[in-house]
Design brief:
The complex is a heterodimer of chains A (about 280) and B (about 325). With about 280 residues, chain A is mainly beta. Chain A is about 15% helix and about 40% strand. Chain A has a single domain, classed as Immunoglobulin-like, CATH 2.60.40. In chain A, strand 16 (about 250-260) and strand 17 form a beta hairpin. Chain A is globular, with a radius of gyration of 18 Å. The longest helix of chain B has 24 residues, at about 260-285. The chains are: A mainly beta (about 280), B alpha/beta (about 325).
């Protein structure tokens, strides 16, 4: 499924040019419900090969602030009621320049009942979460979020400072680890996730896009999840997921690749070795 | 203050419609707003003489709107024997023009120095009103880069509100990387560039004759501070402000002159509550969502615009401390 992302990026390029103009994000603000629905239909067609997701707010839940305090860091919590039947997950920010913010494929060492991540939101937009069930069916929920400028907002530091420590990772487990018992895991990755929309006024140049494309997590070589992502992920991404460790002791390995083909790998002993 | 992004300009969407209508009406009326010192429907800005020779205008305790022309920071000027120094430039071309008019009501001495205390638009966009005076534009050594990174973004959002009254970006011509001083003839003004605190380019100054400190947005009084740099750095900067020994200060927002010690104590208390709150959350189960909902809530009654900024401040603090 990884190939599907590049298609969406191309789809987003025209919009990206638009939002770099003088009136960023206004279209998303003034869209009617019908326009939003039409856009979602169009997005679904391009992602799901003609399949349509069924609305099921009981199976899929999305918590997001109604109005984002910081459009460049909007925290989202996705809750899935039937984790055992879930194969994967799409997070779609309809009016972002590149709508597919993340695509997760879960493996045996994940318990996909909750996923948290932080995204950029460029305008008032619907955010859709689509669960891909193991039987191939699609279940979705939607939330409308008011935010603006999250993609073009300048970062609070210089480009040089922003890439300091790039590729550093940390892992936090919220409890004791036991075999086949889910535990909250938070993965932090240092990466500016430059999306190519932040402009240097003097040079009139945009900071070149450089963003994470893939995060693959395994536990003792068994898949936890693969995640495809792009410019909608907030800088210094933080992802919280439920690890379902197949053994009480093991190694959690994270592989990260970005759009410049830089790669970072980190292996965390589980449980963490204390000093 | 703020304005790292939308908070301070977040009414831009609504305001922009008003702006266009205002602009049209002005056109029909044959008025050229840009040639007037201040708009006819605006009360003249009130600059009070807080100590002899130092004049300060109280900025509105609001976010930028079409009506207030982003005149929301405490700005002012110092009249010396030989020249005038602008202590902070104002929030828009219109705001800067009102400031310049207020100077010219009082003196014909040349305006030789214009300070831009940091990158936020309510402090930097008035500079364009002084270009004709050919002053030196004084800023922190990192201000130039910060304006390059953010200036155009701010300008667009300000122009959504104010049209051509927004102004353009002025790049500082005199960079302060540590300390510096200028002499207005009979009055020395000293500068201190701070490490990342409120922003990454905060310049504080002191009027040596009166002893009054002008720390700009390193000091918020009454209005909730906006964190856009480093919380740990800001706490260190507060200690540095106290170390100057100054008794009184002109804060960037709030009353035009305050006793330094209690003002610093209030700000330190808020920042410490933020720091301790996010640290506790990070050490626990670590949820930025819960931190945003809970941290700092006990401070709500103590600050104006609390609900507009606290969540953003917690987000910034959380990002800083989760990598600690």
């Amino acid at each position: 499924m990884r190939h599907s992302m590049s298609g969406h990026l191309a789809f987003g390029v025209a919009l990206l040019a638009l939002s770099a103009g003088l009136a960023p994000a206004r279209a998303g603000v003034e869209d009617s419900d019908q326009e939003r629905a039409a856009r979602w239909q169009e997005i679904q067609k391009s992602i799901f090969d003609g399949k349509t997701a069924t609305t099921d707010d009981a199976a899929v839940k999305l918590d997001a602030p109604t109005r984002a305090a910081d459009a460049a860091l909007v925290p989202l919590t996705i809750t899935l009621a039937q984790p055992k039947d879930i194969a994967g997950l799409y997070l779609v920010i309809d009016d972002n320049p590149s709508p597919v913010a993340a695509h997760f494929t879960f493996g045996p060492d994940a318990d996909p009942k909750e996923v948290k991540l932080r995204v950029r939101v460029n305008t008032y937009t619907d955010i859709h979460v689509v669960a891909v069930m193991k039987d191939g069916s699609l279940k979705q929920t939607v939330k409308f979020v008011k935010a603006s400028g999250g993609c073009s907002a300048p970062m609070g530091m210089s480009d040089e400072d922003a890439v300091k420590g790039i590729g550093d990772m940390r892992l936090r487990l919220a409890g004791d680890v036991a075999a086949d018992k889910p535990v909250d895991a938070t993965l932090m990755i240092r990466h500016p996730n430059f999306n190519g929309m932040q402009m240097n006024q003097l040079t009139r140049q945009y900071t070149p896009a450089r963003y994470i494309q893939a995060i693959d997590v395994t536990y003792d070589a068994k898949k936890v999840f693969d995640m495809d992502t792009d410019i909608s992920l907030a800088s210094n991404p933080v992802i919280t997921f439920e690890l379902l460790p197949s053994a009480a002791k093991g190694e959690l390995k994270v592989d990260v690749k970005d759009s410049t083909n830089a790669q970072w790998s980190r292996t965390f002993p589980v449980p963490a070795v204390s000093n | 203050m703020a304005v790292f992004p939308e908070m301070a300009l977040r009414d831009g969407r609504v305001g922009s419609r008003t702006t266009r209508r205002d602009a049209l009406l002005a056109g029909f009326g044959g008025l050229c707003l840009c040639c007037l010192p201040a708009r006819a429907d605006q009360p003249p800005a009130r600059f009070g003489e807080v100590v002899p020779g130092l004049f300060v205008r109280h900025g509105d305790d609001e976010d930028a709107t079409t009506k207030n022309r982003d005149a929301i920071a405490n700005i002012g000027f110092i009249i010396g024997r030989d020249a005038v120094l602008v202590t902070d430039s104002g929030g828009s071309l219109a705001d800067g023009r009102a400031l310049r008019a207020a100077i010219r009501e009082r003196t014909d001495r040349p305006i030789r120095h214009v300070v831009m205390s940091h990158v936020h638009p309510d402090h930097s966009f008035g500079a364009a009103a002084f270009v004709e005076d050919r002053p030196e534009f004084i800023g922190h050594a990192k201000l130039r880069q910060a304006l390059q990174m953010r200036g155009e973004y701010y300008r667009r959002r300000l122009a959504d509100l104010l049209g051509s009254d927004a102004g353009s970006i002025v790049i500082p011509t005199r960079a302060v990387s540590c300390t510096d001083a200028i002499d207005l003839g009979d009055r020395r003004i000293s500068f201190q560039a701070h490490a990342t605190a409120h922003t990454d380019c905060d310049l504080a100054m002191r009027d040596e004759r009166s002893g009054v400190l002008l720390p700009a947005d390193l000091l918020f009084v009454r209005r909730i501070p906006a964190l856009d740099g480093s919380l740990a750095g800001w706490l260190r900067a507060l200690t540095a402000l106290e170390a100057t020994g100054a008794a009184r200060a002109v804060p960037g927002h709030g009353p035009v002159l305050v006793d330094l010690a209690p003002a610093v104590a209030d700000l330190r208390r808020y920042l410490t509550v933020l720091r301790d709150g996010v640290r506790a959350e990070i050490k626990g189960t670590g949820s930025i969502e819960r931190a945003i909902e809970t941290v700092g809530q006990g401070e709500r009654g103590r600050w104006l615009l609390f609900d507009d900024y606290n969540a953003r401040n917690v987000t910034e603090a959380y990002k800083e401390y989760e990598w600690e």
